[in-house]
Design brief:
single chain; 10 strands; globular
Length: 531
């Protein structure tokens, strides 16, 4: 398989580095041939290197992403273009897609699986040529992701895209089922290969169960989230109770076969792009309501109980994501910045009451999700700001909103200061010592967390904060470090070295070693390199 040549364009050096290290490029059929910090530099590199794929930011000094795409499209063989954007770049993404960008990626939700899925379309287009007549799964995935993110061009264009990739529903209404995993560390603390296996297993179970009575399409969202758009098969039209029964069976089977606990939110709409987007939004709202649903595993959207801010142009999603991440990472500055932006937005935008309450519920669910991932009881942390659903819905004015946000900030920052004062850095030091002692065996995050009397998700967050990498990354770091010493200091065969550092599969060890070191174990030994 020929390697597709990739050029990355972004004025943020940190993001360029993150992109370059996000996946094992060559193993997936790609070659990183260059990087540029603005459009003018990228254009010169494109003319010299002729990349097959260009991943470009939209906002850059000088020649921005839009200007670059215009110039690239007049080349004899335009590259396959993927736009990088933030939550607030809707107009720029719309223009980029109109000019010929094949896909877009949200920077705050950049994941290896989504990046690879986005790039997969380049091969079917023959290094930037015309797309094949028959739509592939990656094309359907791209369109469904547009629905999930609500980041598509307009109603008419999305309808055309749905038709072009063969997405159609035989009956109405159409339901959206959002499956949200309860243990995100299961996705974050994995190798790329393990992640792909888990993702494949989830899709297989969900699609097989849905196939009994539903005509359905599945797509992955953010980490640990899976969406299913589905309609009843014609022979079963009207038997709406089957949708909930299907969701309950999915929950049961995911728990039984993958030991994966999840909650499933259900929303409903018609088959139009606006109806599908509304169903998706309702499903997300139902999942957010899980904290008030008395431990229900399947939650149907209740518009009478939960306000829907879908009619508002304001989205609290970016700040919710930053706030949740700040809580999990135990970062006071991140919490203060996210809440400070929310206070400013809500004070100046004068949102309708329905949109205001929807934003507060969304934000509060993010707080509770962050505390849940950290293994901390809400009542112990939110001493002054803890609210029940009726209490939140009774908030009447912006003054009361600001008072609650102030109390929420005080509670969260007090929690973070206490966590830091309690010396969790020592727990990480102990975790590192235990990894050093047991790296050659079957050591798991779950086992280590139990020994340290922490939750797995919280230990993963502590490792990221104090060790600079999560448990899985640190374990690989230790194993490869010892492997390098053995390769240079002994004549043991590669399979023996692999076994001594905890890898039963020599070929898997070799892939990991090359991804980390840049050389195969044999090449490393021949060079006598001590890097």
């Amino acid at each position: 398989m020929d390697l597709l040549r990739v050029l990355v364009v972004d004025d943020d050096a940190v993001l360029r580095i993150a992109l370059k290290s996000l996946v094992a490029w060559q193993e997936h059929g790609y070659q990183m041939v260059g990087e540029a910090q603005d459009g003018a530099q990228a254009l010169a590199l494109c003319q010299a290197l002729q990349p097959d794929i260009v991943i470009t930011d939209m906002k850059m000094p000088g020649m921005d992403g839009i200007a670059l795409i215009r110039r690239l499209q007049v080349m004899p063989q335009p590259p396959y273009i993927v736009a990088l954007s933030g939550y607030d770049d809707f107009a720029l993404v719309r223009e980029a897609m109109r000019l010929g960008a094949a896909d877009y990626l949200l920077k705050l939700e950049l994941e290896p699986a989504q990046l690879l899925q986005s790039l997969a379309g380049a091969r079917s287009r023959g290094h930037g040529g015309a797309a094949q007549n028959l739509p592939g799964k990656e094309e359907r995935t791209r369109v469904l992701r547009g629905l999930v993110s609500r980041f598509y061009l307009d109603e008419r264009e999305m309808k055309t895209q749905l038709q072009a990739v063969g997405i159609a529903f035989p009956t109405e209404p159409v339901w959206c089922l959002l499956i949200k995993a309860g243990e995100l560390y299961r996705f974050e603390e994995t190798t790329e290969e393990e992640y792909q296996t888990l993702q494949f297993s989830i899709f297989s179970i969900v699609e097989e169960i849905a196939g009994d009575c539903l005509h359905a399409y599945a797509v992955e969202g953010k980490t640990g989230e899976f969406y299913l758009f589905a309609a009843l098969k014609p022979a079963l039209q009207g038997q709406t109770g089957l949708v909930r029964q299907t969701a309950e069976r999915m929950h049961e089977m995911l728990l039984r076969y993958l030991d994966l606990f999840c909650v499933i939110g259900i929303g409903q709409g018609d088959a139009s792009p606006a109806g599908l987007t509304a169903a998706c939004r309702q499903a997300a709202g139902a999942v957010r309501a899980r904290f008030y649903a008395a431990n229900q595993a399947v939650i149907e959207w209740d518009g009478d109980r939960m306000p829907d801010g879908g009619g508002s142009s304001y989205s609290i999603a970016p700040q919710r994501a930053r706030l949740t991440a700040g809580i999990v990472a135990i970062q006071e500055d991140a919490v203060r910045m996210a809440l400070g932006q929310v206070k400013h937005d809500l004070a100046t935008l004068h949102l309708p009451r329905n949109a205001l309450l929807a934003s507060l519920l969304d934000l509060y669910s993010g707080v509770r999700e962050g505390l849940q991932q950290s293994g901390r009881a809400v009542g112990q942390v939110l001493r002054a700001s803890g609210r029940s659903l009726p209490e939140l819905l009774s908030i009447s004015g912006i003054g009361e909103v600001q008072d609650w946000l102030d109390a929420l900030e005080d509670d969260l920052c007090a929690f973070i200061r206490l966590e830091n004062a309690e010396g969790y850095q020592k727990a990480v030091q102990k975790a590192k010592r235990l990894i050093e002692e047991r790296y050659d065996g079957e050591l798991t995050l779950q086992e280590l967390a139990e020994e340290l009397q922490l939750t797995p998700g919280y230990l993963s967050a502590l490792m990221k904060k104090y060790a600079g990498m999560n448990f899985s990354e640190y374990l690989v770091h230790v194993r490869i470090g010892h492997a390098k010493k053995l390769l240079l200091g002994t004549t043991d065969k590669v399979y023996a070295v692999a076994s001594q550092v905890g890898y039963a599969d020599q070929f898997y060890f070799s892939r990991v070693f090359k991804r980390v070191v840049g050389l195969t174990p044999g090449e490393f030994r021949k060079r006598g390199d001590v890097r």
